[in-house]
Design a protein that fits this description.
- With about 400 residues, the chain is mostly beta strands.
- The protein has a single domain, classed as Porin (Beta Barrel), CATH 2.40.160.
- The protein has a 16-stranded antiparallel barrel.
- It is globular, with a radius of gyration of 22 Å.
- It starts with a helix and ends with a strand.
Length: about 400
Amino acid sequence: MKKRLQFSILFLILTVGAFSQNPPKFGIEFSGYVKTDVLWDSRQTSAIREGHFLLFPLNELPDAHGEDINAVPNFNMLSIQTRLHGKIFGPDALGAKTSGVIEGEFFGHSDGDINGFRLRHAFVKLNWDHSQLLVGQYWHPLFITTSFPEVVSFNTGAPFLPFSRNPQIAFTQNVGDIGVTLTAISQRDFVSYGPEGGSSKYLRNAGLPALNLKLEFQTENKEQGTAFQAGISGNYQVLKPRLVTNNNFKTNNTTSGLIGLAYFKVKVPELTIKAMGIYGQDMFNLTMLGGYAVKEINPITDEEKYTPYTTLSVWTDLQTNGTKWQFGLFGGYSKNLGTTDNIVGAKYVRGADIAYLYRISPRVIYNTGRFRFAPEIEYTVAAYGNSQSDGTVTNEKEIGNLRLLLGIYYFF
């Protein structure tokens, strides 16, 4: 019944939206695409939504005869990335141009809700001559919307770059070609991990939003078809994993993480080159390696203190700028650098037994009218080993997965 109602609402929206090519002065304009992904993996993987959002290959899992249970290929065909985007136009307010966006897709909120319609973006903007205020759910500021990998895979390069959408308040001040953005962030669909599993409560109970500061320079010459962009960003987040210990003592201990990021994009008429480097602590909620662990336990109260995992990640993406044919190549590397202090208790981390990851992914994109056909090869390697008391991993063995992917789009 719930899904029938969702489809009825969508049908009504699409009917009255009429897909206008010229945005109305006041109202809403709809766009989006229908997409089907056909994918094949050489082994079992750590992934989301029946393998659609790939992270990395699973480790070897021997059976009673020593055979690797995870060394089994996997095939799937999904259309859950199909998307509807509504751009809202409205009258001026507070001396600013106003606009809004609401966007959803059929990715669902969990594997059990696959095919369910979920909210991606929902925000309003106030635009003055040299500043902007954004309020609502949008990409995390560490996901650089003007400079991310153009891969076909829905993972968009994760776990080698931050991938998260968050409720937020972001204010940007522009001075010439330089923009400075300060953002206060909460969590909703992309959450931290802790004693009660994945939840936004650890950030909420800390009593403070995560904070991000970004400094960006960009310039463009449309006549020559060139552009340059570079920026740095810093992020700070505090979590409170527990309010009470197992021995019924109130606890106020928190864990915090700092993240630094730098990136650039260079565009010339024939080619666009992008690159990014990220170094930081507790990046689980950004769909990357990392998290935190218990470093100290009070034997009387069961009160815990925590230590964050540190992760280093770099990636680059190259793509030709043709209109009909485009060729691209993505490469990424991520390293688990361990924890600040030795671990004595539970680990709340993604990839505790992974020393490093790397990926190489070539693609071809063919555009014809509103159709796009995009085959991609994605080879991802995870180096599994023995987790040490300082969070690092030794005696690692590389486990690889080959993904063959074909994305078929129809844009409207």
